[in-house]
């Protein structure tokens, strides 16, 4: 579930709201029921629920990342401001206490600015994805090179793209790396959890790889339980950092006791052909599988 990647932020958010509630009761006194303005309560309560709904959509649909952080914390500031705004319908503050008024007013405009910045980043992501999809449609109109389950490129396309990048690497002297991820004993995972659960895991893993890698990278499903990413203009050190980031994200896709074992390896390409480079990367992956989970094999 996607929300597992955000559980620490959710805990911190609940603590922030709880601290606001305690501070409100510390600074003011509860109103009598006849003092409640139920029209204001309805309006401000609805606004708060909508902002909470935005937070829910973010944590349920977006993986962790820079754009997600902007969206989440911008929405959280709005929730905090609207929450305190709703509280003052039930709590009366002394005239000389301005702290709660500031806390109600200041987070909302700051949150709107942060949320807007995150929406701009989200818009850029979608434009890049749309460009990739349009290019994919043109290329694949007469070719069946897309895996129907994960919607990733298959092994044929991988070899074609990798050959092109190897030639560019040789002519322009730009670094090129491969990232390979393998699921251990995926058939056992399917037997334990069912084919539907296995397909769902593959789909989640594919979405995560696409969202966490760069738009210039090409992610392919090489075989049933093996994924390969071509990383243009990427040296070994940068590829290693990318692999470590993926390591932190992928382990959160399933429960701790139910997750399949995974191995990831990265390699800077020095071979003269796509097939030789891919073979070397798979050999490195096989060597890494002899070690522990997510053991990243250096070049």
Automatic annotation (TrEMBL):
Coiled coil: none annotated. It comes from the Bacteria. The keyword GTP-binding does not apply. Keywords: Membrane, Signal, Transmembrane, Transmembrane helix. The keyword Membrane applies. Its EC number is 2.7.7.65. It catalyses: 2 GTP = 3',3'-c-di-GMP + 2 diphosphate. It is an enzyme of class 2 (transferase). InterPro entries: Diguanylate_Cyclase, GGDEF_dom, Nucleotide_cyclase, Rev_trsase/Diguanyl_cyclase. This is diguanylate cyclase.
